[in-house]
Amino acid sequence: MSVQTQSTDLGLAEPTPATTQAGPLPPLPHWESTPENLGEAIREVKAALRARIEASGRTVQEVFAVIEARVTEQVEAIEAALAAGENVWPVIDYADIESGTVTPDQLEALHRRGCLVVRGHFPREQALAWDAGIVEYVESNQFFENYRGPGDDFFGTVGSKPEIYPIYWSPAQMQARQSERMAAVQAFLNAQWVSESDGVQWFDPARDSLYPDRIRRRPPGVDSAGLGSHLDPGTLDLWMTTAYQQAFRHLFDGTVEQYDPWDAAHRTAGPQYPGSTMCSAFRTFQGWTALSDMDHDQGVLHTVPIPEAMGYLMLRPLLDDVADDDMCGVTTGQVFPATETWHSLLLRAMAGIPDVRAGDSVWWLADMIHSVAPVQDQQGWGNVMYIPAAPWCPRNEAYSEHVREAFLTGSSPSDFPEEHYEREWPNRFGADELNDTGRAGLGLPLG
Ligand SMILES: [Fe+2]
User: Fold this and answer.
1) Of 15, 273, 333, 418, which has fewest CB within 10 angstroms of its CB?
2) How far apart are CA 65 and CA 67, in angstroms?
3) Which residues place a Cβ less than 5 A from the ion ligand 1?
4) Tens digits of residue pLDDT in 422-446
5) If you measure from the C-alpha of residue 301 to the centroid of ligand 1, how many angstroms do you get, rounded to a whole number?
6) Spacing, Cα 22 to ligand 1 middle (Å)
7) Could you write out the DSSP letters of every residue in 71-140?
8) How far apart are the first and last CA of the chain?
9) Integer Cα distance of 121 and 316 in angstroms
10) How far, in Å, from the CA of 305 to the mean position of ligand 1?
11) Containing H/E element for 53?
12) If you measure from the C-alpha of residue 58 to the centroid of ligand 1, how many angstroms do you get, rounded to a whole number?
């Protein structure tokens, strides 16, 4: 596929009115930016979603039961695997991705679980050298002396040194982002999605948009409270914008059996409600690359490895036991919480990554519930570079304008707090060091 900087052929389908054998379904109210009265908007959209499901000839309970049955089967399989001490995260060697020798069984496991460890994504020595390079980069620029404390409240930091470094433009991060090995894994993961349907190409699976994110370096001996169960794709906008209502159309129009959590249709051009933890980009997978060895019991990432759980999360608020102005606790400006109150079935399947080594990478479907386990007196370092798969699409092209500006000026990208530590740092990664993958990711002309 050719690299393009314009996107008129990507993901701009007009909404088509939904119909059933019974005739057209009632339209849904929608809010393309955050509603002024959230409670009132929730009340209105829930009533309309229920009415739409019922107009298709099925009840909300019936539709929810279909998803619940699909999810329950997975929850029970995962519980059994966990009880037997098995690892439930699929693992694929980078060498097999590179040579195209991933087996059908491995692909099936990836689709069933929606998450993956890529073994040997980078040589261990390369990852350790990047880790050392990051230390050298921040120390040579007196980062710790100048650190002003956390710029947001998402990752709380205790002590004078942060665990999350608001650093985006180190040579190590950029070398990883524009490497051939990263591009190969991103393209492999993107290809698991349906990127083209109804004559529309929703995203370009072969081209990443280089979404810049931070670094975590968690030292040995720390106590960490971890991070609660949540998901990141959006908040109330998931029910309230036209684009998301179309993306989740099968949940609401009587065709729940056709709901496919890997379908990108209508997901790559619509708006998002702003919030302190928003991600402007469409990500097929969230991910990070390990820069240290990490054992599975040292405060690591967990997911609910069930792609269909998103359907459960979307339908659960429509049941009668949830107040009319409540979306099971989802609101704007905060992450989407997954809680024992509303999602206890799903949380039974929470499963941690296996031991990983420096150079392995870890990936999970962008709609999936995840958490970070607490740890006391952590053994060894816990160091990662956050690098997702965010393929080129209208939404990511729009955000790439901000990314280019941040890259060229050494600023914090606009999705993140305005900390801008690197603006005067002389040894940040330079524009003259970009290869064609990096240039394409940033939307710059190829060299
Ligand atoms: Fe998250």
Assistant:
1) 418
2) 5
3) 232
4) 999 999 999 999 999 999 999 999 9
5) 10
6) 41
7) HHHHHHHHHHHHHTT---S-EEEHHHHHHT---HHHHHHHHHH-EEEEETSS-HHHHHHHHHHHHHHHHH
8) 18
9) 38
10) 14
11) helix 38-55
12) 34
